[in-house]
Amino acid sequence: MAKFSPKARRGIGIGIIGAILGLAVMLTLTALEDTVVYFYDPSALAEKPLDNRLIRVGGLVVEGSVDKSESTIKFSLSDGAARVDVAYSGILPDLFREGQGIIAEGRYDGKLFTAETVLAKHDENYMPKEIADSLKDKGLWKDEGE
Description:
five-stranded mixed β-barrel, CATH 2.40.50.140, single chain
């Protein structure tokens, strides 16, 4: 058996600890990737093909697009530049209406966004930050003070 000097043993020990920490960080990041839910606006969805993973999409409910005739409620979201059709089975929030900013969480198959959750704004002055930022970037939204 080879004998290592104290300096060599310390270097080997530091290397092993570094490898273990690197592996732990890699495993943690891999596990967290499955729980992260990304936000997209309708324009970003139109440009980027997705692999049917859980995402959030936000925008304004298009006037005249809400169809509550079936058990599945269908409506369209827009950011002014693009539009995405949404299907939702469930009870919509009381504050849901046409022309309002909402965020829907679900899966997009390239044609239809199937929502599992729909979140609506809580008062007349509030716009979800993600939607407001997206609309501001396109020049379609201004804050009260602007």
